[in-house]
Amino acid sequence: MNIGYLARVIFGARIGKLNNVVKEIHQKTGKNRIELFFDIIFCSFKYGAGYNDYIIFEFYNMNASQRSTYLTRLKNKKLVLRLNDQSLCYLFDEKNVFDEKFKEFLGREVIDLAHINFEMFEKFIDGKESFFAKPNVGESGKGIEKIKVADFNSLKELYDYIMNPKKNFGVIEEVIVQHEQAAKIYPFALNCLRVVTLVNEGKAHILYAVFKMGNNGHFVDNLENGGLACHFDLDKGEIIGQGHTSSLVNYDSHPYTNIPFIGYKLPFMDEVKELVTKAALVVPDFKYVGWDVCLTPNGPAIVEGNNYPAYDFPQLPDPDKPRIGLLPKIKEFLPDFK
Q1: In total, how many domains does the chain have?
Q2: Which domain holds residue 256?
Q3: What phi and psi, each to the nearest 5 degrees, are found at residue 205?
Q4: Are 196 and 330 in contact (CB under 8 A)?
């Protein structure tokens, strides 16, 4: 049987990716390629799991009862559409709008470049060695620059640089001083907790938390830029799992600092919980949000909110951990969700 032909009929232009997934799992496990192919098809219809879900969650190593507990790509989209008014996505998608709406939670100075002049810039830059310039719309750290004041001959030259329309910057932000415990594990990025909240009957609940870290010299913590994410227990205030990468290579310690992950502690957990549950109620018609929270010497601050929360982080498999996905937790608040 020609797997490529069947995949082309069912998946169209995605044949290459599907073939790669089947090949990778076959090489890793020795499982029959034909059986894997049809199992991926089955899981897409039965559980709403795409082939990426199938490989990152290791569906090939699960039974039906385990698979049924996972929040998959299609089910996550269904949850987003149920809980979030899509006409309000701009509140989270547009950086300048988000910063204004949630300014009490940011813990840093932020300026919208649409409302700035040179005198205001001079005041902002006073005493700063560097700052961040960010586009209003972007993802995965794309388009963000950390700018050093000393790299420019004058403030006017620097001002002209950030205001250049070709750079597409929307806001400038003060560099956050990170708590030493958050910085120690990887010193070059703002390492953040991703905390997802779900609001039900006017009360905000925390679905999960992970700790995201940078790597490879990058100043952002996104997995797309080589970063890592670990399962995190907010009650214990510590990492409880391996470091996961987008390439599905996992680590027991950070590859840059060699600091072990499991048991690594962070401060201000009560404050983190209070911060996100309060922020979660600011926009009543947006009930499902992923918050990126950094830790400063004075407490937590929100970096951004994600209106399409990542469902993969908390379900990535750790060795010797039960294969239970997010659905049972979600059904505690939404019993009818399927």
Answers
A1: 3
A2: 80-101+178-331
A3: -120, 150
A4: no
